[in-house]
Amino acid sequence: MTEKITLSASPRKLEGKKVKQLRKQGILPANLFGKGIKSLNIEVALKDLQSVFKKAGETRLVDLKVDGTTHNVLIHHIQVDPVTETPLHVDFQAVSLKEKITATVPVQIIGESPAEKEKIGILVQQLSEVEVEALPTNLPDHLAADVSGLAEVDAVIYVKDLKFDQSTVTIKPEDLEKIVAKVEPPAKEEVATPPPTIEAPLQGAQEEKTVTTEEPSQAKKE
Question: Could you tell me the pTM of the whole model?
Protein backbone atom coordinates (compact mmCIF):
# COMPACT_ATOMS: atom_id res chain seq x y z
CA MET A 1 0.00 0.00 0.00
CA THR A 2 1.29 3.45 -0.94
CA GLU A 3 2.33 5.57 2.02
CA LYS A 4 0.01 8.50 2.66
CA ILE A 5 1.82 11.82 2.64
CA THR A 6 0.52 14.63 4.83
CA LEU A 7 1.49 18.27 5.27
CA SER A 8 0.12 20.89 7.65
CA ALA A 9 -0.39 24.53 6.65
CA SER A 10 -1.93 27.66 8.15
CA PRO A 11 -3.82 30.62 6.65
CA ARG A 12 -1.43 33.43 5.75
CA LYS A 13 -2.08 37.08 6.58
CA LEU A 14 1.15 38.63 5.32
CA GLU A 15 1.36 39.44 1.62
CA GLY A 16 3.66 41.20 -0.83
CA LYS A 17 7.11 42.20 0.41
CA LYS A 18 6.12 41.45 3.99
CA VAL A 19 6.47 37.70 3.33
CA LYS A 20 10.23 38.16 3.71
CA GLN A 21 9.56 38.16 7.44
CA LEU A 22 8.16 34.64 7.14
CA ARG A 23 11.15 33.32 5.20
CA LYS A 24 13.51 34.60 7.90
CA GLN A 25 11.57 32.42 10.35
CA GLY A 26 11.81 29.32 8.16
CA ILE A 27 8.24 29.66 6.92
CA LEU A 28 7.38 29.52 3.23
CA PRO A 29 4.53 31.55 1.71
CA ALA A 30 2.21 29.39 -0.37
CA ASN A 31 -1.01 29.39 -2.34
CA LEU A 32 -3.78 26.79 -2.58
CA PHE A 33 -5.91 26.78 -5.73
CA GLY A 34 -7.99 24.37 -7.72
CA LYS A 35 -11.29 23.60 -9.35
CA GLY A 36 -14.26 24.35 -7.13
CA ILE A 37 -12.33 26.12 -4.36
CA LYS A 38 -11.45 29.72 -3.70
CA SER A 39 -7.75 30.55 -3.93
CA LEU A 40 -6.27 30.67 -0.45
CA ASN A 41 -3.07 32.27 0.85
CA ILE A 42 -1.35 29.86 3.23
CA GLU A 43 2.05 29.23 4.81
CA VAL A 44 4.04 26.06 5.53
CA ALA A 45 7.21 25.23 7.41
CA LEU A 46 10.09 25.11 4.93
CA LYS A 47 11.67 21.98 6.42
CA ASP A 48 8.31 20.17 6.31
CA LEU A 49 7.81 21.06 2.65
CA GLN A 50 11.31 19.90 1.71
CA SER A 51 10.71 16.57 3.44
CA VAL A 52 7.35 16.08 1.70
CA PHE A 53 8.69 17.08 -1.72
CA LYS A 54 11.41 14.42 -1.55
CA LYS A 55 8.66 11.80 -1.24
CA ALA A 56 5.93 13.27 -3.42
CA GLY A 57 7.64 15.30 -6.11
CA GLU A 58 5.01 16.85 -8.37
CA THR A 59 3.07 13.66 -9.15
CA ARG A 60 2.06 12.07 -5.82
CA LEU A 61 -0.98 13.13 -3.85
CA VAL A 62 -0.48 15.03 -0.62
CA ASP A 63 -3.06 15.46 2.14
CA LEU A 64 -2.79 19.17 2.88
CA LYS A 65 -4.41 20.10 6.19
CA VAL A 66 -5.51 23.73 6.57
CA ASP A 67 -7.67 24.87 9.49
CA GLY A 68 -9.09 21.42 10.12
CA THR A 69 -9.89 20.75 6.44
CA THR A 70 -7.93 18.21 4.39
CA HIS A 71 -7.37 18.89 0.69
CA ASN A 72 -6.11 16.37 -1.87
CA VAL A 73 -3.34 18.32 -3.59
CA LEU A 74 -0.34 18.07 -5.88
CA ILE A 75 2.73 20.24 -5.43
CA HIS A 76 2.19 22.24 -8.59
CA HIS A 77 5.21 24.55 -8.61
CA ILE A 78 8.02 25.66 -6.32
CA GLN A 79 9.63 29.02 -7.01
CA VAL A 80 13.30 29.08 -6.04
CA ASP A 81 15.97 31.74 -5.73
CA PRO A 82 18.07 31.60 -8.94
CA VAL A 83 21.31 32.09 -7.00
CA THR A 84 20.89 30.16 -3.73
CA GLU A 85 18.20 27.74 -5.03
CA THR A 86 16.32 28.29 -1.77
CA PRO A 87 12.52 27.84 -2.10
CA LEU A 88 10.68 31.18 -2.12
CA HIS A 89 7.06 30.20 -2.76
CA VAL A 90 5.00 27.08 -3.43
CA ASP A 91 1.70 26.48 -5.21
CA PHE A 92 -0.58 23.58 -4.26
CA GLN A 93 -3.22 22.40 -6.72
CA ALA A 94 -6.34 20.87 -5.21
CA VAL A 95 -7.65 17.99 -7.35
CA SER A 96 -10.69 15.75 -7.54
CA LEU A 97 -9.93 12.05 -7.22
CA LYS A 98 -12.63 11.34 -9.82
CA GLU A 99 -11.37 13.66 -12.57
CA LYS A 100 -8.36 13.15 -14.81
CA ILE A 101 -5.66 15.80 -14.73
CA THR A 102 -2.63 16.65 -16.85
CA ALA A 103 0.77 16.49 -15.17
CA THR A 104 4.44 16.39 -16.13
CA VAL A 105 6.19 13.16 -15.15
CA PRO A 106 10.00 12.77 -15.06
CA VAL A 107 11.78 10.20 -17.24
CA GLN A 108 14.22 7.90 -15.46
CA ILE A 109 16.96 6.08 -17.37
CA ILE A 110 17.43 2.48 -16.22
CA GLY A 111 19.94 -0.15 -17.28
CA GLU A 112 23.17 0.38 -19.19
CA SER A 113 23.58 0.86 -22.91
CA PRO A 114 25.93 -1.80 -24.40
CA ALA A 115 27.04 0.76 -26.99
CA GLU A 116 28.22 3.12 -24.28
CA LYS A 117 29.70 0.30 -22.20
CA GLU A 118 31.80 -0.85 -25.15
CA LYS A 119 32.65 2.79 -25.97
CA ILE A 120 31.03 2.47 -29.38
CA GLY A 121 28.94 5.57 -28.77
CA ILE A 122 27.64 8.02 -26.19
CA LEU A 123 24.14 7.82 -24.72
CA VAL A 124 22.41 11.20 -24.84
CA GLN A 125 19.10 11.78 -23.03
CA GLN A 126 17.06 14.20 -25.12
CA LEU A 127 13.84 14.23 -23.07
CA SER A 128 13.70 14.48 -19.28
CA GLU A 129 9.94 14.66 -18.72
CA VAL A 130 6.67 13.75 -20.43
CA GLU A 131 3.19 15.20 -20.12
CA VAL A 132 0.55 12.61 -19.20
CA GLU A 133 -3.14 12.50 -18.38
CA ALA A 134 -4.53 10.30 -15.62
CA LEU A 135 -6.57 10.25 -12.45
CA PRO A 136 -4.57 11.76 -9.56
CA THR A 137 -4.32 8.35 -7.91
CA ASN A 138 -2.89 6.80 -11.10
CA LEU A 139 -0.16 9.32 -11.82
CA PRO A 140 3.19 7.48 -12.04
CA ASP A 141 6.15 8.72 -10.01
CA HIS A 142 8.29 8.43 -13.15
CA LEU A 143 8.44 6.81 -16.57
CA ALA A 144 11.22 4.24 -16.99
CA ALA A 145 13.41 4.23 -20.11
CA ASP A 146 15.32 0.93 -20.35
CA VAL A 147 18.47 1.55 -22.41
CA SER A 148 19.91 -1.97 -22.08
CA GLY A 149 18.90 -2.69 -25.68
CA LEU A 150 20.77 0.24 -27.24
CA ALA A 151 23.78 -1.58 -28.67
CA GLU A 152 24.82 0.55 -31.64
CA VAL A 153 25.18 4.12 -32.84
CA ASP A 154 21.87 5.81 -33.76
CA ALA A 155 19.85 3.36 -31.64
CA VAL A 156 16.97 5.24 -29.98
CA ILE A 157 14.20 4.97 -27.40
CA TYR A 158 10.94 6.77 -28.11
CA VAL A 159 8.27 7.88 -25.66
CA LYS A 160 6.13 5.01 -26.94
CA ASP A 161 8.83 2.62 -25.67
CA LEU A 162 8.56 3.84 -22.08
CA LYS A 163 7.04 1.56 -19.48
CA PHE A 164 3.66 2.76 -18.21
CA ASP A 165 0.14 1.42 -17.69
CA GLN A 166 -1.65 2.37 -20.90
CA SER A 167 -5.00 1.46 -19.36
CA THR A 168 -4.75 4.26 -16.79
CA VAL A 169 -2.22 6.72 -18.25
CA THR A 170 -2.65 8.58 -21.55
CA ILE A 171 0.05 10.34 -23.58
CA LYS A 172 -0.68 12.53 -26.60
CA PRO A 173 -0.13 10.65 -29.90
CA GLU A 174 2.24 13.34 -31.18
CA ASP A 175 4.39 12.95 -28.06
CA LEU A 176 4.74 9.18 -28.48
CA GLU A 177 7.14 9.65 -31.40
CA LYS A 178 9.49 11.97 -29.53
CA ILE A 179 13.00 10.65 -28.88
CA VAL A 180 13.86 10.10 -25.22
CA ALA A 181 17.44 8.86 -25.60
CA LYS A 182 19.80 8.17 -28.49
CA VAL A 183 23.27 6.71 -28.94
CA GLU A 184 25.43 9.30 -30.65
CA PRO A 185 28.81 8.58 -32.27
CA PRO A 186 31.80 9.41 -30.08
CA ALA A 187 33.36 12.79 -30.61
CA LYS A 188 36.25 12.68 -33.05
CA GLU A 189 39.57 13.91 -31.76
CA GLU A 190 40.90 16.73 -33.85
CA VAL A 191 44.44 16.11 -35.07
CA ALA A 192 46.49 19.27 -34.99
CA THR A 193 48.04 20.08 -38.37
CA PRO A 194 51.74 20.95 -37.98
CA PRO A 195 52.79 24.31 -39.39
CA PRO A 196 54.50 24.21 -42.81
CA THR A 197 58.28 23.69 -42.67
CA ILE A 198 60.41 26.42 -44.23
CA GLU A 199 63.68 25.03 -45.51
CA ALA A 200 66.76 27.14 -44.81
CA PRO A 201 69.02 27.93 -47.81
CA LEU A 202 72.04 25.65 -48.19
CA GLN A 203 75.22 26.99 -46.69
CA GLY A 204 77.70 28.22 -49.26
CA ALA A 205 75.03 28.77 -51.86
CA GLN A 206 75.82 31.80 -53.89
CA GLU A 207 73.28 34.53 -53.77
CA GLU A 208 72.01 35.69 -57.08
CA LYS A 209 73.13 39.17 -57.87
CA THR A 210 71.01 41.56 -59.76
CA VAL A 211 72.99 43.27 -62.48
CA THR A 212 71.69 46.61 -63.56
CA THR A 213 72.59 47.65 -67.04
CA GLU A 214 72.41 51.22 -68.10
CA GLU A 215 71.05 52.12 -71.46
CA PRO A 216 73.73 53.55 -73.76
CA SER A 217 73.66 57.31 -73.83
CA GLN A 218 72.59 58.91 -77.02
CA ALA A 219 75.40 60.22 -79.25
CA LYS A 220 75.93 63.93 -79.09
CA LYS A 221 74.71 65.75 -82.08
CA GLU A 222 77.40 67.56 -83.90
Answer: 0.75
